[in-house]
Each structure stands twice: as structure tokens, then as C-alpha cells.
Amino acid sequence: MATTRQWTTAVLPLALLAVLVVGFLAVGPLAGVESGSALPDVTVTHATMPNDETVTLHVVNSGPDAVTVSQVLIDEAYWTFDVSGADATLAPMERATVTVPYHWQPGWDLHTTLVLSGGATVGHTIVAPQQTPGLTGGLLWTLAVVGIFVGVVPVALGMLWFPLLQTLADRWLHAVLAFSAGVLGFLAFDAGFEALGLAGQVPGAYEGEVLVALGVVGTVLLVNAAAARGEGATPLRVAYLVALGVGLHNLAEGLAIGGAYALGRVSLGGFLVVGFMVHNVTEGPAVVAPLAREERPHPAHFVAIGALAGLPVILGGWIGSAAGSPTLGALFLAVGVGAIMQVVWEVAGLIRSTGQLGTRTNLLAAGAGLAVMYATDLLVAI
């Protein structure tokens, strides 16, 4: 138990730092040296179109000073506008919506510009605008149905290969596990590139690239800390970790679907749903392969593993339809990458516990996992 002296020693540097900061701000030694002011940093995160007579821009002030929206241009013409809140001024880190009464044509790009009081401009292009459906019960139900067919059904179908996996010799079972590692590796690369792409749309104050790095590294450390509490890479634990990694990736996948639906920029026809199903069915054997040498795994584990891997698509769709935030999307993708990296390490440990990892068969199987996921990924485009 910590003594009073230990607490004093721990708190003293923080107390002195607080005194130093207050003293610096009170004295203001740089008052005669400072020149100029910080440039405004306003970002249009996205646009929604509630009807064909209205354009709504969602903005955030990422800069250190308050800014005022003075004028709005659409296709180089000035338009009347309304900013949510008491006035058109945004405090630092404040979010607001700029609503413009403008008749737009579906599919015709709109070039919008916000003119700030200091003369700075913020441009944003709305590509192929479509009416935003809004967050309704019907939309949530639609996203739930899409999530079942995109996430839950494919994983369940892939899990039906479990009886076959139980009959395989160790060499081929290891190859299936290596194939699963290849599948997971592709998901990590795919999510990582998407996260970095979204990082460019994150408001500057949130440091998108740093946020992605923290999400990846932080998740690896958290999952590794949780895994260290166990008794080694047991098959059941690895199966749940694989399902967790797949589920986090599918959460981000659902986030993209929900966000696209909420913005009216997606048409999930039959071919696209089939593409998702073919792409995601390979996740099924990946989540159950670690259990192939377990004697009579309890059926409840299969239900739990399948739900952990597939249901997050629905949750992600609901979150994406409500938030539509590139910051949230980049963070979820980064968390998925971190979890998958740790899971791949656990799968490798499971192979090493009963055989050799770097065999020719395992390497070819891992490459096949990457190739299959790449080929099926070509069927999917939002």
C-alpha cells in the first residue's frame, strides 16, 4: 500500500507543472514577440441532401480560434444560408451544419465554398448527389437485413466446413490455419489502406494519421494483454480471437455500408450482395479451424463465435448510418487492423505448438488466402 511520502512524490511534479503553466499564462513573456495569428482550420466532413431543394454541409472548426461563416457559394454563385446555433460563429472544436436552400439535380456534382470572415475559403465537392434517406426505422431494418446477408450468412456457411476440417491430417489442418492467417492478413492490409485514406478526411485537430497509428498499436497492446492472462494459445481462445478480429473488420465494413446508405450513395443490388457473400464466406473456416482438434466443442461456442464474427456488420451499419464520421471510420478500421495483427500471431503460435510454421505447404496456403481474398474483393465495390 502506497505511503503518504510516495503519494507526495508522485503528485509533486504535477503540482509544480500546474503552477508553471499558470505563471507562464499570467506573465505572458511572449506578448511582445508574437506576430500574426493562426490560420483558420475548418473542415466540411460530409454533406447530406434531405430533399432536392436543400443542401446541408456538416462542418467542424479544428483551429484554435473562433471562426465565422460569412458567405456560401454553390457552383460559384452566392446563396443564402443558415448555420445551426445562435449565430454563424463556431468556437474551437465546435461542430455545426450549414443549410443552403438550393435546387440540385441528382448525379450532377456540386462545388461548394464557405467564405470565412477573415477571407479564407473552404471548398467541398459533392460527387453525384443523391437524396439522403435519413435515420428511420425502415433504414435500420434494411441495414439489418443487408448485414445478415453480408456478414452472418457467409460466416455461417463457411463454418459448415468444420466436419471436413476434423478429418484432415495435421499437415493439412496447419495449411488451413495458414490459409486463415492469409485471409486475416488481407483483411488487415485492406483495412489499413482504407484507414489511411479516411485519415486524410479527418479534421486536422484530430491528427488522422496519428489516430490510426494509436488505434493499431493500442489495440495490439490491449489484445495482447488480455491474451497474456490465459494459459497459452489454446484452440478455443484462438478461435474466439479470430472471430474477434473478423468481427472488428466486419464492423468497419458495416460502417462503410451504413455511411454510404445514409448519404444516399449506395445501391446494394443482388450482384453486390452476392459479391459480399463470396468475399466473406472464407471467414467461416478461418474462425472454426482452430477447433478442429477439440473433442466435441460445445455447440454454444459455434453460435457465439459465429455471432462475434458476423453480427458486427449490422452494428456497424447502424452506427455508420447515424454518424457518417470519417474520424470514427478511421478509428474503427485501425482497431480492426490491430486486433487482426495480434490474431495472426496467435494463429502462428497455434501452428507452432503442434508442428512447424514455415513449411512449404503453409507458406503456399497463406499465399492462397491472400489471393482468394483479393479475387473475391474485386466483386465488392460501394
Q: Any chance you could write out the topology, listing elements then pairs?
A:
Layout: H1 4-27, E1 42-51, E2 54-61, E3 67-74, E4 77-79, E5 82-83, E6 89-90, E7 95-101, E8 110-116, E9 121-126, H2 137-159, H3 162-166, H4 170-199, H5 208-227, H6 235-262, H7 270-281, H8 283-288, H9 299-310, H10 312-323, H11 326-354, H12 360-377
Antiparallel strand pairs: 1-2, 2-7, 3-4, 3-6, 3-8, 5-7, 8-9
Question: Can you give keywords for this protein?
Answer:
single chain; 382 residues; alpha+beta; Immunoglobulin-like; 2 domains; 5-stranded antiparallel β-sheet; 4-stranded antiparallel β-sheet; flat
Explain how this protein is built.
This protein has twelve helices and nine strands. With about 375 residues, it is α+β, with helices and mostly antiparallel strands. A hairpin with a 2-residue loop joins strand 3 and strand 4 (about 75-80). The radius of gyration is 25 Å and the shape is flat. The strands form two sheets. Strands 3, 4, 6, 8 and 9 form a five-stranded antiparallel β-sheet that branches. Strands 1-2-7-5 form a four-stranded antiparallel β-sheet, with no helix packed on it. It folds into two domains: about 40-125, Immunoglobulin-like, CATH 2.60.40.1890; about 135-375.
**Strand-residue proportion:** 5-15%
- The average pLDDT score comes to 83
Using only C-alpha atoms, the radius of gyration works out to 25 Å
How many domains in all?
A: 2
Q: Give, in order, the helices and strands.
A: HEEEEEEEEEHHHHHHHHHHH
Q: Between the first and last Cα atoms, what is the distance in angstroms?
A: 56 Å
